[in-house]
Fold this protein.
Amino acid sequence: MNFIEKAFVSVSNVPSGRHEGKRRDAFSDARLSGSRVLVVEDDFIIALDVQSSLEEAGAIVVGPAFTLSQALELARRENVSAATLDLRLGHESAASVAAVLEERHIPFIFCTGQPVGDPVRRAWPHTKVLSKPASGHEIVAAIAEIIRTAH
């Protein structure tokens, strides 16, 4: 169960087992076991939610990186299988992070609230884009797909 669902379950007194089984079944098909996934997201709550979803699917999360400098450092030096990038980190663009990942042949997705006309989205037209708020299942499925197609 991701961070948001845990908070909702504890507040609403709904038995957690009811939601956990469905979530585990949905994520078990993704097969992220052992994959190292870089998470670049400037919103703390969203970053924790993405991290929780990926970890439940078996991934090892690198980061999360909340700033451009953190993201660039991790993108340059860490061994990762894939990444999920927010297009904007505060007022800065994640384009340089995407360029580093592309140079290293590391597949990535964008998870963003930025409009279709955003220059970074146009620079990587074949990159999968998930609109915020994306569900944990959508993120896990997208990461699993790009890892599978990259190999």
